[in-house]
Structures are given as structure tokens and as C-alpha cells.
Amino acid sequence: MNKLTQFLKSGIKLLKRERYYAFLNILGLGLGIFCFLLTSLYVKDELTHDKWHKNAENIYMPQQVLETERGSMMLRPPYAIGQAWVDENPGVKDFVNISGNFRKDYSINDEEFKTEQFVFTTSALFRIFDFRLSIGDPDKALEQPNGIVISYEIASKHFKGENPLGNHIEVEGLGVYKVTGVLGPIPSNSHLQFDFLAPIDFSKSPYEGVENNWQFGSGYHYLLLEEHYDLDQLSAETAEMYKEHTGKEVSMPYQFNRFSELYMSGKAMRTGNSMFGGQQKYVVIFSIIGVLMLLVASFNYINLTTSRSFARAKDFAIRKVVGASKLRLIFIQLGETFFIALLGLILAIIALELTLPSINELLGKNLNLEVTRDPSVLMLPVAVLLLIMILSGIYPALIGSRFNLSATLKGKTPNASGALIRKSLIVLQFTICTGVLASAIIIRSQSNHMINLDLGYNSENIISIDIRKNGIYDKNEALRNELERSTLIQGVASGPIPRTGGAMMINVGEGEKKQQFFDYSSADKAFVRVAGLEVIAGSSFEQVEESKLENGVIINEEALKLLDLTAEEAINTKIPDSQMRIVGVIKDYHTSSAKSKIGPQIIAYNMEELSNVLLRYKAGDEQKVVAYAQSVWEELGGEAPFDYVVVEHYFDNAFKREEALSFIFNVLTLMLVVVAGLGLFALTVFESQLREKELCIRKVLGANYLALLKRLNTGFLALIGLSILISVPITQYLIGSWLESFPYRIASTTTVYIITGGFILLLAVVMLTTQGMRAVRKNPVDILRNE
């Protein structure tokens, strides 16, 4: 207890004696620790995703994989094969089928709500995975046809303070269910998340008629295998089993993907809310961010502390006189480092607790520092303190303990050994600072480039109405006729914007043909005109005689390349292995965001398979058009809510990840500039202390302020310039690999590096001039009177 009291008293004395420098050190380390803790929580959450199930390494999700030049396509196995695996393969212990997440409206006590996580499955879910019921019997909860299991969150929301079992929930299109179980809280690092678990019903969609179907699948199979079971053997057994049941060969090989690796490999076949989750590159990016920030903060502390060590040289010398050993001095300095780092850690934890809700909303995570939920979280701050002691404490401690006793007590400035190390740290700091600032600007530029990229059609003043809804699809013609009568509407059409409908496989190439995916959609005659597409050969459907429209299709430029035809050759040519005949070629246009490359597209004239209605209107009339279209929808008896999208804004959400990453880099850049600025300030203070007699002598001999500033700061500006030169190629290499993941990217980054380098140099000049003026304004009499 006495040692703890002594430690606290020593720390408080340090704060009183070195108020200004202690504040700078605590602020710098606090920022570095904050960033390191945050990124460590994120990386830990990602790397432990789905690994908390005891069977995680023995659970596999089977998929059929179709490889094409446009990439691979994952197909679901037929439903019936799931039970056959268990019955006929000795290595398969159990299986469960889990549907995708469905959006559903549900009502409780006549009050309506919405969910995006309505899932169908069986009781095997609780045998294979470690999902537990806090209320209910896991063996029976999903055995009742009308039973339903609800999540802990749903129970807390709708049944506060009461037992939900036996209550009824009405679900849109499915009927009334009775609550038979309540899930315990599901950890956030699970890609399987549920609001409702309903039993699979083979008489209802989406499982209607699939129980014994060996051709089509519904949902995703998960198999529990014997430990170390040979996956190649299982694949061969699956092929034999499929042939025995169907009499056909397996068209595509089966892959068995380990459950614990699905999330990070991108094969989970589910979309989550995590902004940066499930991608290895973002684990690397955030790891680098955290480490760089901690390094810069540590370098800054080293420079600040060593500069103050020279100012405190007499203090160290007197301690030696009264008997302190070199080891004792080292421990005193390390103790001060530990005290400052501890205060920085406390500041970082307070800041983290205050900002985590906003950060979790940005990242789509549920990060927390609650030790009771995860005791391993306690290791993070302990590890940070140890790292700070190693990175920041040892070198300043060694410097302070090596001062020459007699020279120091005579008033001489200690030898500035280690100047190369200190200046190297400044170069490293500003190399990192320059790189991160350039990266932030490049990310923002790339985001703006994609957002503003020409889609290839006129997306302004047009809405798309989904007509696949219940009660309106068979009234498509009546809907279109009514809409065309309005003077508010300039054009009515149907066709694949802003997205396409489906896909088809076509064999292309000479000799050994290859299967290729083509986007396939239906459109009406007016589509090309209303959408504002550019015809580069042939005609639009509107310009082709009705008698020649049967089997007529329009293709885009990408399809033209795959078919190995010129635009002129394509007209009246048939699509391979089909009756479709090309009547026109249009310029490529985007049916997905600019993050994806435009693919080959076939648009067929087929009035029976239209899925939307496009309405073009005058600028400013959107609300009037929507209101009118909704009134027509309701008059025709549309059972589902009126649903439409504004085409111009359809892809806005596609770039949230890049915008969030840009925001993160902007904040990080600000933090780095602050910390690196403190480091540069420390070095200028240190240098001016070492050279104050030289500066005063030059001042006495007639040197003006400008000459003194130039003498003092030229070396620093050279260091900053060197850091910029080092940073540019490294940053270009790292950010270049990120840019290459986009098919449409900014043309050049040269201007960015020029702007970044200029800003960093300007910032350095302002900081150096500000501190330098304080140094050169000192009265030579005060400095030289004892000489």
C-alpha cells in the first residue's frame, strides 16, 4: 500500500512540475490508445466470428459452384439431399436447413410491426449450433406446425415482464403462430441472427413441394461431420448418392465450406448489417490503422520525453549525487511513463465508452468493453500498457540515466546523443501522417467518382414501380393505360432499370465452348426511348414491325464482345442455342452500382414477363406523380403497399462503405496531424534548447529573425520533405491495391500527392515558425550572463 501511495504522490508531483508537457503526453498517448483499443475490439470481433460454437470446426455448408470468366456462382443443393446425407453417409452425423432472412409484417394484439429476420428451420438447429432457449424446450419448440421461437430482443420488446409462451403472433401471408420458445441473446459476432424461427412447412412458400425434390433447393444446408472426415471422400460419396437417386451425373461439383470460415471467406450467402464485416482486407486495414496510431503516439512521447530529459538534466545529476544508481533512474523514468500511460489509458477508455454507440452505428457492430460479458477484453488495456512501456518508456529512461554528472552540474548542456533516432522518429511520424492524409483524399475522390459516374441512361425524373406484388401483376395493362392518361406523366415503359431481372447461361466461343452468364430481362416497346438508352446498331423494339418482334432481343456492348460479333454483324443473328434473334445493340449501361463491372445483357421483348413500370415526368412533379400512381394502384385493388424507387437515388446506399471509410480516415488524419504536430513541436523545443546559446551569439553578432529561423528550421523542413518522398510510393502501393478492386476508378492520384505534400509542408512551416519565434526572441543577456 505504501508503494502505491508513493507511486501516486510521485505521479502527482510530476503533473504539477511538468503541467504543460504532461498534458501533451497524456493527450497524445490517449489518442493513440483510443484508436488502438477501438481497432483491436473490431479485429477481435471479426476474427472470432462464429467460432464460439463448440462444433464450429466440424460444421460445413455444402454448395455447388459454377465457375465462369465473370466469376463463380454458388448454387444451393436440392432440399432432399440433406436427409440423404445423414441416412447414407457414415461421416455425416446431422443436418439442418436454415432459410434466408425474410422481411415480414407481423402483428401482436392488433398492433403491426416489421422484421427483416424471419427464418424457417427445424429443431436440428439446436443440436448442431450453440443457440440456446432461455424459455422453452429446444426439442419440441419447432415441432408444432404453428409454433414459433422468438428472439430475446423481440421478447423484451413486446412481452416486458411476462412469459411470452402461449402468446399469439400473426405473420403476413403465413397465418397465426403460438410462441413456443425464446432464444437466449445471440452474440454479435455471429452471422446467423434471428428475430423469429418458424418450422419448415412443405405446404407453404418457400418450401412448398421441395421435401422430396432432388432438383431445386430452398434454404441452406448445414452438415455436422465426424471430426477430420475426408471432404474429398464426402464429395465422391455425394456424387454417387445423387446418381443413385436421380439417375443423372452431378452437373457441378460439391464444395463443403467450413462454418467457422464462411463469414471471413464471403461464402456465408447472407447479408449482414456490418459495414466492414466479413472481409479480410478490412481486418488488415483496421489493424494497420490501430498499430500506426499507437506507433505515432509512442514516437511523439519519446520525442517529448527526451526533449524534457535535457531540461531536467540537473535533476538526474542531483539524484546521482545523493546515491541513485543508473538502474534506479531507469525505474524512476519508467514509473513516470507508466503513470502518464495509465492516465492516457483512462482518458482513452472514457472516450471509447462515450463514442462506442456512434461507432457501432457507423460500423454496424456491437463492440463493447464489458468485462463481465467477455473477460478476455481485460487483456486489451493490460497489453496496451505493456506496449507503451516497451515502445515509449525504455529509450527515454536510458537517455536520462546516461547524462554526465560533472558536466551537467557545471551547467553544460548534455551531449545530444541519439539525434539520428529522434529525427528518424519525426520522419516516420510524418511519413505515416502524409500517407493517411493522401489515402483519405483518394478514398473520398474515388467515392465521388463512383457516385457521379454516368450510368449510361437518363436517370433523372423517373421512378420504377414494382408490379410483382399481390393483386396487381395481372392488372399490368390496366395500370399502364390509366397512368398514360395523366398529363403529369411524359412516358410509361417497362424494362430493366435500375436493376435487371434474371440471368441465363449461354455457350460462347469457337471450338470448345464456354458457359457464360448473361443478364436476362424483359421490356416493352417504349423502354429504350423512355430510359434514354443509346442505340448503336439496329433498332429499338419501338421501331421494329410487330410481326418481327417475336423472339426479338436487344443486347449491349459487353454481350457483343462475348459473342465475338461486330455491331453490324449482330443484327438479325441468333443467340447461340436459342431462337432469340438480335434486333438492336445498345450502349452499355449500369444495372448495378459502379462498384461492379457492366456485364453482358440480353433484353427480350416479352409483355408477359414484365416486372416493373417506369414513369418519366417533368422536374418538380415527383410527389404529384407518386400520389397519382398510388391512387391508381389502390383503385385497381393492389393488396400489397404501393412500392416504388426513385431511379436517380437507387444506388446511393451502395457507397455507404466507402463514405464511412472516408470518414474514418478523415478522423484518423486529424488525430495523426495533432499527434505528429506535438512530436514536431517537441523536437523544435529540444533543438532550440540545445542551440539557444548559439542563437543568442548569432543575434548579438547581428543576425536577424529570418536568418535565425532559417538556421533553426531548415533541417526540420528537410526531414518533412524526406518523409513526403518516402510516403508517396508506399502509399501509392497500398492504396493502389485498394483502387484496383474497383472496375471504374479515378484516372490519376498525382494531384492528390501534390496537395497533400503542400499541406504538410505548409503546416510544418507554420508550426516551426511559431515555436522558432519564441526561441529567437529570447534576450541574449538572460542566456549568456553566466558565460
TrEMBL record:
Residues 288-403, 667-780 form the ABC3 transporter permease C-terminal domain. Keywords: Cell membrane, Membrane, Transmembrane, Transmembrane helix. GO terms for molecular function: transmembrane transporter activity. Its main location: membrane. Residues 23-237 form the MacB-like periplasmic core domain. GO terms for cellular component: plasma membrane. The chain crosses the membrane at residues 20-43, 282-302, 329-356, 376-399, 420-443, 663-686, 716-735, 747-768. It is a multi-pass membrane protein. It is found in: Cell membrane. InterPro entries: ABC3_permease_C, MacB_PCD, Macrolide_Exporter_MacB. Signal peptide: none annotated. This is Putative ABC transport system permease protein.
